[in-house]
Design brief:
Blueprint: E1 7-10, H1 13-32, H2 37-59, E2 62-66, E3 70-75, E4 79-84, E5 88-98, E6 101-110, E7 114-118, H3 119-122, H4 126-140
Length: 142
């Protein structure tokens, strides 16, 4: 019996590098301008947020993995959740236009949850990822 191929989608390394650099820069500002209480508060808040985002990318860079048995998703901050294909009730792409923005989100729905992944999470076009998930799911349902 042939093993099912596994596909993984991850945060692009370039995005991780930018987040880490921004976190380091804002953290340096906290140190350099620690004498100004108002600036210190704003910079510390930004540094905490950026460091949390950068750390999440380093701890859980693979946001979605799929194989013949199902999906593995990152939920919450960095927890992984395994879903069998029969637990997935829908896979779809939600597209919205607001003002000058055009957003596309991959939605993976289960009976009790909705998982949302953007192109920034997946490192690729959400339509391509959805198509690949449809193909993997169809191969296993035979």
């Amino acid at each position: 019996m042939e093993a099912s191929p596994e596909r993984r989608w991850r945060v692009p390394p370039g995005h991780m590098a930018v987040k880490c650099a921004a976190a380091a820069a804002v953290t340096a500002l906290v140190v350099l301008y620690s004498h100004d209480p108002q600036f210190l508060f704003l910079a510390a808040t930004a540094a905490i947020g950026l460091n949390a985002l950068a750390l999440r990318d380093l701890v859980a860079p693979v946001r979605l993995a799929a194989d013949g048995d199902g999906l593995t998703l990152v939920t919450g901050y960095a927890r992984r959740r395994r879903l069998r294909w029969d637990e997935v009730t829908a896979i779809r792409v939600d597209e919205r236009r607001r003002l000058l923005l055009h957003t596309r989100i991959l939605e993976i729905e289960t009976a009790d949850d909705l998982h949302l992944l953007s192109a920034f999470d997946l490192g690729g076009d959400v339509h391509d990822v959805a198509d690949e998930l449809y193909r993997l799911r169809a191969r296993t349902s035979r």
